[in-house]
Amino acid sequence: MKTNNNWHKETAMIHEGYDSEDHQGSLAVPLYQTSTYVFDSAEQGERRFVGEEAGNIYSRLGNPTVAVLEDRIAKMEEGAAGLAFASGMAAVSSVLVHLTKANDHIICSRGIYGCTFGFLKILEEKYNITHDLISMKTEQEIEKAVKPETTCIYVETPINPTMELADLEAVVNVAKRHNLKVVVDNTFCSPYIQTPLTFGVDYVLHSATKYINGHGDVIAGLLVGNDADEMAKIRGTVLKDFGGIISPFDAWLLLRGIKTLPIRMDRHSANAKIIFDYLQKHPKVEDVFYPFDDQHPQYEIAKKQMKMGGGLISFTIKGGKEDAQKLLNHLSLVKLAVSLGDAETLMQHPATMTHSAVPKEDREKMGVSDTLLRLSVGLEHMDDIMADLDQAFEAI
Ligand SMILES: *Cc1c(COP(=O)(O)O)cnc(C)c1O
C-alpha cells in the first residue's frame, strides 16, 4: 500500500509513497543513483517523450527515489503534489519565477531570509518586479499593501530571527479578495508543527537542509502546492529548464531524516521551552523571543497555526556587541554556526552573520540589534545545553 488516508502524520512520514513489494522487498527506499534510463524500444522512447506512457526518461525529469520524497512531503503538507530541489533557494526562486512576470509586484514578510531578499533584488533589477516588506500582522496592513500589479504574497512565519508571526488567516483573506497567490516558507516549523496549505495558502516551501533532514549533512529544498496541474507546470518548466534538481543521494538522506521528524520536533520544542524559561530568568539576558511564550503578543496566533513552539529562540543580552561575541567565543558544547534544525545546538549572531548584508538602519527596524543572538536548540540533554550556556554567560 503506497498511501492510506487514515494514516496519522507520524505513520505517513515513514510509509507514504513506498511499497517494498515493488522493490524486491527492500525495507528502505532504494537509492536510484542513475542519470538516465534504458528504453525497451524506439517506440517506447517516443511514447515517453510525448507523454503517452508514464515512465522514466532522464533523472533531471524524474527519479524513483526523488519521487518517493516528493509524494511524502506532499502528504505531510496536505497538498496535491510535491517537488524536490537542490536547495531551499532553488525552491524559493523557482516558485517566484513561476508566479511572476516583468513589472509585477510582490508583498513580502519583513525580515525574510537573506538570500530570498537577494533574489527579490535580482527580480527587481532585471525584470522590474517590485516588492514591499510588511509585518503581515493584521488584515488592514496587508490590504493596504495591495497594488494593481500585485500577483503574490510571500510569507515567512515565524520570522527569522525576531520570531514575530504572520497571521496566515489574515493573509489568505486578503489574497482571496484580490486573487493573489500565497507562498509560505515553512522552514522554521516543519510540516509537523504548521501546515499552511490547510489555511488556504497555495504553496509551501522548505529549506529541507534544516529540520526536515535534521542531521546537518544535506542542502536541499522542497515545494508543495495545492494544485496538481500548477505543480506539473513548475516541474515541466522551471524545475526542468533551470535544472535545480536534487541529487538522488540527497533525496535518499532526506527520506531517512523525515522518518524521525515528529520525535525530533517534540524534543526540540520541549528542550527549547526549558531553555526559554532559563533565559528569561537569566540576569544577563534582556529579552527573549519564542512564539509559544504566553506573554508573546501574538500567542493567540501561535496557538491557532502552530502545534508547538519549535526549536528556535532569539534573545538579547545586556551590554554591547562585544559581549555578544564574547558569549559566542566561550561556547563549547553549543556550536557557533549558522543553519538550524540539527541535532547539535547552534548559536549565531544575526547582525554580523545571517543579516550582515542588511544595512544597520534596516536591521534595527527589523529588531536585529547588535546584542541579539539566535539559538537553534538541539537534541542534547537540556542540562548539558544549560551548563554550557551557564559557563559562557559567566565569562561575560
Ligand atoms: C536556510 C533557509 C533558506 C535557504 O535554504 P538553503 O537550503 O540554504 O538554500 C530559506 N529560508 C529559510 C527560512 C532558511 O532558514
Automatic annotation (TrEMBL):
Query: Is Mitochondrion there in the keyword field?
Result: no
Question: Gene3D superfamilies from the xrefs?
Answer: Aspartate Aminotransferase, domain 1, Type I PLP-dependent aspartate aminotransferase-like (Major domain)
Needed cofactors: pyridoxal 5'-phosphate
**Keyword rRNA-binding part of the UniProt annotation:** no
Query: What SUPFAM superfamilies does this protein's entry cite?
Result: PLP-dependent transferases
Q: Which UniProt keywords apply?
A: Lyase, Pyridoxal phosphate
- The EC number on file is 4.4.1.11
Can you state which reaction this protein catalyses?
L-methionine + H2O = methanethiol + 2-oxobutanoate + NH4(+)
**What name does the UniProt record give this protein?**
L-methionine gamma-lyase
Q: Which organism is it from?
A: Sporosarcina ureae
